Amino acid sequence: MNKIAIVGVNNSLGREILTLLEENGTPADTIFAVDTNSPLGTQVSYGEDVDMDVWNLDDFDFSSVKTAVFATSEEIAKRYIPHAVNKKALVIDCSSAHAADANVPLIISGLNDTQTADAKKGIIAVPSPQVTQIMLPLQKITENHQIKRLVINAYMSASVYGREAMDELFAQTRKIFMNEPIVDDEKIFHKQLAFNVLPQVGEFIGDETKYEWETNVEIKKILGSDVKVHANCAVIPAFIGIGEFVNVECADDVDIDQIRNQMRDTKGVVVFDKHVDCGYVSINDVQGENDVYVSRLRQDVSVENGFSFWCVADDLRAGVAQNVCNILKNLLKK
User: Fold this and answer.
1) In the chain, what is the straight-line distance between the N-terminal and C-terminal CA atoms, in Å?
2) What is d(CA 5, CA 141) in angstroms, rounded to the nearest whole number?
3) What is the pLDDT of residues 191-249, one digit of tens each?
């Protein structure tokens, strides 16, 4: 029995995971679509020809599946994952509910797949999208160099907050063009996001915001606690995608041409770096793409053994859904 439950199919990430599974040829009859507060008769599309019934999460029996993917909020994950684990389903958690749990491996497919064997609690976590799109280009660099410090400036679209946030951005933009007040459309961001940049992504946890904290904790969990991480996250008026400037300091000498070649040799990473006008990739260029794109790769002369790069990715598809599907593929092989 290799059946899979996808929990959260009515939100943007859940739909993206279903889309990728269908594109990869996963049979519809091996998948259960599940969501909260799903009335009888609710359906979700699976490709162009199939409509799946959506099971209500409160009533779903996880003993009928081998693996359960939770593409939900942290609150839902914390509440329902224990039910799935108790029914012996292996859980892949897309929220940050288990980011700091030492007994839950944090997996980026292609980087540390072997750590799935350390899932002592029956749970595998996947990193936040801003972390995945940093760590994939650094995959071969971590094999050849010791990274001492990372400084990250992340520019995140409304999609990191979900579909309602994307709707709010659209409503704000429309009302500004129509010269109408937007006060009724500041429920999620609590400020004007349209034509603006907000230096807060998630609630504050001490001096850091939630996404800055996640970036710090998750990278240290993947690379080891000795690495120093400083993350700055801002939300920008884009619907989908994340762009990041990343400064890397290593313990030993680095050659920028070797770094470029190592990134080019990494599966899932595309280096497009031309030192001319528009010789880089932007957020708008990568919507619907499965890969992480790297540009503006250069030596960081402000520190010894440093370099920096710009990376962009579709946060829903390349940042999370592709990683989940690759993990599922590896699990099914076993």
Assistant:
1) 13
2) 35
3) 999 999 999 999 999 999 999 999 999 999 999 889 999 999 999 999 999 999 999 99
The answer to whether 150 and 229 have CB atoms below 8 angstroms apart is: yes
Residues 6+ apart with CB under 8 A from 33: 6, 9, 18, 44, 46, 52, 53, 54, 55
Maximum Cα–Cα distance across the chain: 61
Q: Report the residue count for the chain.
A: 334
Beta-carbon contacts of 216 under 8 Å, excluding residues fewer than 6 positions away, are 208, 229, 230, 231
- On whether the pTM is more than 0.85, the answer is yes
110, 135 contact by CB (below 8 A): no
Using DSSP's 3-state secondary structure scheme, residue 141 falls into helix
DSSP-assigned beta bridge partners for residue 234? 155
Give DSSP secondary structure letters for 197-225.
Answer: -BS--S-EETTEEHHHHHHHHHHHHHH-T
Q: Can you list the alpha helix ranges (DSSP code H) found in 178-334?
A: 210-223, 256-264, 322-333
Distance of alpha carbon 102 from its chain centroid, rounded?
Answer: 20
Residue type at position 160: V
Which of 135, 136, 163, 126 is closest to 321 using CA atoms?
126
- Distance, CA of 257 to CA of 23 (rounded, Å): 35
